[in-house]
Design brief:
two-stranded antiparallel sheet
């Protein structure tokens, strides 16, 4: 029973997360636990538990006398801090992962192929298919997560999970549709990281990772400015 309850909580959280990333609600909109429970045809308990988890991610906030509300999108300053933190933590993980170089290369290549397959499906589908865009986000993150799988440092793993949830907030800025989609560019930048790893070029791989994260920030800043102007 406890296992099923956890699974249900995770399913409810994923459904609410999907709607948040689709910008179904405006920043500041109240999220009624009872209303969401009726909409999702579940009891209020898994919704309440999901909200606690989403609050930790920064996607929702708890406001006295109002309850849970949609958090504002990340502004430029928060994006700079987030990408700076990711650079520090991911570079540390990637550097340590070189100690298991053969496995690192194999898993990065597999993650890179999976990402390419998702992008191919996106190209073949109708524009604006959120489920496929979400698959892109997951595949993109999976490539980065390989660093941590082979770093074999539980504390780095804990730190990146915290950063992962805040990265969900940053992805809200990419809700502008196909014109804002950077999946193919990100995949090409991953290819440069992978190539340096294949060459056993430790410093080159970390430099390519830093260039990729700098480029992500550069692409995100104009979108953040547009969101600030429209707020």
């Amino acid at each position: 029973m406890a296992i099923r309850r956890q699974v249900l909580r995770d399913e409810v959280e994923e459904l609410i997360l999907q709607r948040l990333l689709e910008n179904r609600w405006e920043p500041g909109a109240r999220l009624s636990i009872d209303g969401l429970a009726r909409d999702l045809e579940v009891s209020p308990t898994p919704v309440r538990e999901a909200m606690v988890s989403l609050e930790r991610s920064g996607l929702v906030e708890y406001v006295a006398l109002r309850g849970y509300v949609v958090a504002p999108m990340l502004d430029e300053r928060h994006m700079v801090e987030l990408l700076d933190a990711r650079r520090v933590v991911e570079s540390a993980a990637l550097g340590r992962a070189f100690e298991r170089w053969d496995a690192l290369v194999a898993d990065l290549e597999a993650a890179h192929r999976d990402h390419a397959a998702v992008l191919a499906r996106i190209d073949a589908a109708d524009a604006g298919d959120y489920s496929l865009v979400n698959e892109h986000f997951q595949a993109d993150w999976a490539f980065h997560h390989v660093f941590f799988q082979h770093a074999e440092n539980r504390y780095l793993g804990t730190m990146v999970e915290n950063l992962r949830t805040h990265t969900h907030r940053m992805r809200q800025t990419w809700s502008g549709g196909p014109a804002a989609f950077d999946g193919h560019i990100a995949h090409q930048e991953h290819e440069l990281i992978l190539e340096r790893v294949r060459q056993h070029n430790h410093d080159g791989a970390i430099a390519a990772l830093g260039n990729h994260l700098d480029a992500v920030l550069a692409r995100s800043r104009p979108l953040a400015a547009e969101n600030d102007e429209s707020a």
